[in-house]
Amino acid sequence: MKEPTEEQIITPGDNENAPSTNEQVGPTREELETLPRIADKIPYTIFMVVIAEAAERFTFRSITGPLQNYVQNPLHDDRLPGALGKGQATATAIGYFFQCWCFLMPILGAVIADCYLGRVKTILLGSITATIGTLILFLTSLPVSLENGAGWPGLLVALIIIGLGYVKYTTRAVNNT
């Protein structure tokens, strides 16, 4: 623990402009010398938020990396990996849409967290939603799904659902408490 500087230590009677006891910000010199330093337990919700945030970032990066090839290139091309064959312009547009969607959805997450559910429940709901979207993307990207035409609609639905689950900036509020 960093020791306070001389200016930060408040000694009663030192200064007429010093805050009253009720407004005291830091410890007094006597408190610094006599009070024991006791570490507290970290709440389990902090661990859950760290896990949710790490999973969210891992998922986001794992999807945005190969998304261009997945949309742009056709399924049975030995030279280029891909699945949907929609071309470069469509692939780029989908990639930018997904990133924009994911960075706008925390606004909705903040409203839900502040007005309705609270931070932890909103993070849990967002994590479940993103997991469902990721599962839809996985299932519709299997070869049998692609051959039956589920790849394109599955991708669009999955990206929207995954974006709805991203409550990134809500997790920062929990990290600060």
UniProtKB/TrEMBL annotation:
<keyword id="KW-0812">Transmembrane</keyword>
<protein>
    <submittedName>
        <fullName>DNA, SC103</fullName>
    </submittedName>
</protein>
<keyword id="KW-1133">Transmembrane helix</keyword>
<feature type="region of interest" description="Disordered">
    <location>
        <begin position="1"/>
        <end position="29"/>
    </location>
</feature>
<dbReference type="InterPro" id="IPR036259">
    <property type="entry name" value="MFS_trans_sf"/>
</dbReference>
<feature type="transmembrane region" description="Helical">
    <location>
        <begin position="150"/>
        <end position="167"/>
    </location>
</feature>
<feature type="transmembrane region" description="Helical">
    <location>
        <begin position="96"/>
        <end position="117"/>
    </location>
</feature>
<keyword id="KW-0472">Membrane</keyword>
<feature type="transmembrane region" description="Helical">
    <location>
        <begin position="124"/>
        <end position="144"/>
    </location>
</feature>
